[in-house]
Every structure is written in C-alpha cells, then in structure tokens.
Amino acid sequence: MASITIRNLVKNYGGVTVIPGLDLEIADEEFIVLVGPSGCGKSTLLRVLAGLEAIDGGELMIGDRRVNEVPAAKRDIAMVFQDYALYPHMTVRQNMAFALEMRGAESAEIASKIEEAARLLDIQPYLDRRPKALSGGQRQRVAMGRAIVRDPQVFLFDEPLSNLDAKLRGQVRAEIKMLSKKLKTTMVFVTHDQIEAMTMADRIVVMKAGVIQQVGTPEQVYENPANLFVASFIGSPSMNFLPVDIQADGLRLADGSLLPESLIARPSGDHGKLTLGIRPEHFELVQEGQGLAADIELVEPLGSDTLVHVSAAGQEVIVRVSPDLRPKAGQRIWLSPAAGKAHLFDPETEIRIDGTGKAD
C-alpha cells in the first residue's frame, strides 16, 4: 500500500497546457475522487498516475519512490476502465489470471487469489463464463477482480460506472466503497458525477481547467464550497444564486426584499454587491410578507421530496420541500434562508466570503 504525492505537476498536449502545475497529497489507504466537468483534466491526471501519459514537469511519488520515468508496468498500480477491457475469448477465470501468469506466478497462488477476489465480489458462479454471457454489472465486477488479484499499491478507476443503468450504478457504487474498506488500498476514482463523488469519497478533489478548486471531505465541500464553481457543481439540484447589495440595514435583494442579518453572517468591510448562494433544501417557508416573494412556475414531485421551481427577485430558483405541502403552479409563496445556511460570494473573484469579510 502507498501514499501518492504530486508536486507542481505539468501536462501539455502540443502547445496546450492541460494541467498547469498541480499539487496534491493522497494518504495511504485513502479513497480519493477526482470530479469535474468534461475536459477539466481529471482523466488526464489519472492517466499520468498510471504511467500512460508522460509528465512534462513536476514530480510524482508513489510511496517513497519517484515514478516520473517509471513505465506503467512497473508502477505497481491497477486500473479499472470504463469499458471493462476484458478479453472476449477468455473465461472470467482466465481474464483474472492473465496478468498473474505474465508475471510468472505459481498456479496455486493464482487459483487462491482468484477465489478470494471472486468471493469478495460475489462472482464465483461466473468464473467459467465468457464476458458475453455476463451483464454489465457482472463484467465490471470481473474488471475489478482482475485488478484485485494483482494486489497493487494503488487502484485507479476511470469512470467505471458510466456504462451502467441508474439502479446498477448505485449498487456497484456501494460495492466499490465497501471493497475499499476491505482491501485497505489507496484508491483514486475519476467521475463527472457529483453524486458518485459525494457518496464514495473520503475526500473529493474538485477540478476545473486542470486546476484544483477545492479538496475536502464530501461534507466540507458541500457545506462550505470554496467558490462559485464548486457551489454550482456539487449538489443536485445545484445551489441557487441571487445578487444582493450590502447596505447599512442589511442584505437587499433585487426586488427590494431585505434579509435579516440574523440569518446571514454580514461580512465586514465595504463589499457593495455580492452573490448570495442558497441550496434548495435550505429555504424555509415563512408567512406572507416576511421573506422573499416567490411565484411557483413548475412542481416536480420526486416521492421522498418535491422540487419547486419559482421566480423570485428576478431569478429562477429551485426549492426542495416536503411532499406533504403539495404546492401548485401559479401559487405565491414566501421564502427565507435557513439560519446559517446561506453563503456570500465575491462576483468578481467568485471566492466565498466568510463572516469576517475575508475570502475563505
């Protein structure tokens, strides 16, 4: 098992810099999820870790070993791909055994490792089948089993759930998380799905344009986003944003509504215009005239809760409410942020501002 240390890593493609100088520490046995939109550099970073892409600058350490020039086959990592990458003419057992046979492992050792991995992944009944006879979820388990038998220092996952349907994705997601606890191995998982990131990670690394925007536990990133990008990307539906003016009597919205300072930590200093961020579940319904007037435009019942799309202060806003309320399109409701749950952002730097008036 091993930690990963990345110092000022640079990756270029021709004249384009994809990763301009990235620093990251991943602890031994930690489950890290790299998340961000397409093109943010997360898969490129994973391929650099795997040795599939050369490094153009900086330093990469796996454990105590510098691996900048070490080929992929000698890095002691195992990678699970989005498309499974199984050999179609081989059985599950043969697919799992192949890498060990190439290493010259003894037959008894190979059989033992396959049986142990098959037990962990619950694929014992499928060992003598070929991939075409398996479902998508079973194939992904085989791909993970092929990685497990190698007993690597680090597991790398490149969007392994993207080809699965929603129900199966949730099931395999939970299986990978439980597997990480059993194997106690460092894991780096790439996804564009923020729900996968929130539910699986020990820590999340949010990336944009090759730059790390925030690193933290799922709770830290969700509750205290570093900037507007993180606030909008993490959370489903994403955070609502409203322009506000910092005035002597409080925070005034575009429609003239005044938000009580008891609900929002008023920043010190002369800020003027800021952006107010509120998550859909952090609105409270209040009595008429006591908050922000909101006209219901669309209602989305989800069973466990209801998403209400409203027009408020000239903005489209989404509110999460109990299904027992049964709101109707065309109604007017009054909203107020829950105490301590709203955030303020500088609209120019996009950085979140704390109650002292400083960027977090």
Automatic annotation (TrEMBL):
GO cellular component: ATP-binding cassette (ABC) transporter complex, substrate-binding subunit-containing
Any Gene Ontology biological process: carbohydrate transport
Transport recorded as keyword: yes
Any one GO molecular function term: ATP hydrolysis activity
Alphabetical keyword list: ATP-binding, Nucleotide-binding, Transport
Domain annotation ABC transporter: ranges: 4-234
Pfam families (UniProt xref): ABC_tran, TOBE_2
This protein's name: sn-glycerol-3-phosphate ABC transporter ATP-binding protein UgpC
Similarity section: Belongs to the ABC transporter superfamily.
InterPro entries from the UniProt entry: AAA+_ATPase, ABC_transporter-like_ATP-bd, ABC_transporter-like_CS, ABC_transpr_MalK-like, ABC_transpr_MalK/UgpC-like, Mo/tungstate-bd_C_term_dom, NA-bd_OB-fold, P-loop_NTPase
Matching PROSITE patterns: ABC_TRANSPORTER_1, ABC_TRANSPORTER_2
